[in-house]
Design brief:
Radius of gyration: 23 Å
Bound molecules: pyridoxal-5'-phosphate
Oligomer: single chain
Order of helices and strands: EHEHHEHEHEHHEHEHEHEEEEEEEEEHHE
Number of domains: 2
CATH architecture of the largest domain: Alpha-Beta Barrel
């Protein structure tokens, strides 16, 4: 028996979740966001499950090339644009689409070098204040791009800072609309949260990411309530059992002290597998068919489950760290982070199993 940890990726759930995005924005096309190795799920396996998307969005140039090499002919967008002139030339030749967010990037678009026109997403800073042209510079930037013989289609693009939170999208929508007034070009603004909550942001291309992986972008609405199905299930098993007397501690630092007789299941999963070390005692775990919690510090290769009231649990009992029956959003929230970070951090040493049945319950 190998070490029992696995990450199961439910391909049917991915396809289902893409359908949920489409149902919310029936008139928009979809860039499925598969940056960061498809949020830790595996670039090419996710692309295959989402091949019905109108386009893909990544940040890494090599990921875009891998998608083209695998035969995907739809639009592939580079969300941070090109990082140098060589990428711009090769990217245009590969018919990639690129965000352009600085004047420096204009100069790299060279039709003679690439022999091809490049589709551009002109990024507008509507209030996130990371990338993009300031509203007053948008008209000039648009004209510059439009006059470049190396540029093909132009899409106007911006990104929301708080579509998932109390801030909403209204202020950024107003800034964006003013900045692009009178420019007749397709628009792309909506991430998952805006796709789900703000129809007025849908325009021509939505850019859902996290919802495709079956996680809710909101703290006040669960993935299940949104009709999303979990894609990644990180599971392992109990490999040892330890009995504690009152006063005994568990794990490094002795941060957890038993106040009664306890049974502790040692689970083969630690931070070197991608489980967050900062998850406190009390983080939810599914052991067999029941919920319990972690106790003590997460170590590199192990963590501890409270199985005091679970006489049925013992060596070999399956433990779901997150996913099926133990929502990643709740685990993330308990650990003071977001599902994005947990899924992206899945370690390379964890074997991945693809599952394509719809029976993910
Ligand atoms: C990552 C990203 C998205 C997807 O955001 P989610 O919150 O995962 O839906 C959309 N647009 C841009 C520019 C991004 O960087």
């Amino acid at each position: 028996m190998p070490r029992p940890i696995t990450a199961t990726i439910d391909l049917a759930a991915l396809t289902h979740n893409l359908g949920v995005a489409r149902a919310h924005a029936p008139h928009a096309k979809v860039f499925a966001v598969i940056k960061a190795n498809a949020y830790g799920h595996g670039l090419l396996r996710v692309a295959a499950a989402l091949r019905g998307a109108d386009g893909f969005a990544v940040l890494e140039f090599d990921a875009a090339i891998r998608l083209r090499d695998a035969g995907y002919a739809q639009r592939i967008v580079l969300l941070e644009g090109f990082f140098d002139a060589r990428e711009a030339v090769e990217g245009a030749a590969q018919k990639l689409s690129s965000v352009v967010h600085t004047e420096e990037q204009f100069a790299w678009i060279d039709p003679l070098a690439s022999g091809s026109r490049l589709d551009v997403l002109l990024k507008i800073n509507s209030g996130m204040n990371r990338l993009g042209f300031m509203p007053e510079a948008v008209r000039g930037a648009y004209e510059t791009v439009q006059e470049n013989p190396g540029v093909g289609k132009i899409t106007l693009m911006s990104h929301f800072a708080d579509a998932d939170g109390a801030g909403g999208v209204a202020a950024q929508m107003t800034v964006f609309e003013r900045a692009v007034a009178g420019i007749a070009a397709p628009r792309s603004l909506a991430n998952s949260a805006a796709t789900l909550r703000y129809p007025e942001t849908h325009f021509d291309w939505i850019r859902p990411g996290i919802m495709l992986y079956g996680s809710s972008p909101f703290t006040d609405r669960s993935a299940a309530e949104l009709g999303l199905k979990p894609v990644m299930t990180l599971a392992s098993a109990i490999i040892a059992v330890c009995d504690l007397k009152p006063g005994d501690t568990v794990g490094y630092g002795g941060t957890f002290r038993a106040e009664r007789m306890m049974r502790i299941g040692i689970v083969a999963c630690g931070y070197a597998d991608g489980y967050p070390r900062h998850a406190p005692s009390g983080t939810p775990l599914r052991v067999g068919d029941r919920m319990t919690t972690t106790v003590g510090r997460v170590s590199m290769d192990m963590l501890c489950a409270d199985i005091t009231d679970m006489p049925e649990a013992g060596i070999g009992t399956r433990v779901v760290l997150w996913g099926e029956g133990n929502p990643v959003d709740v685990v993330a929230q308990t650990a003071g982070t977001v599902s994005y970070e947990l899924m992206c951090a899945l370690a390379a040493r964890v074997p991945v199993i693809e599952q394509s049945s719809m029976s993910n319950h």
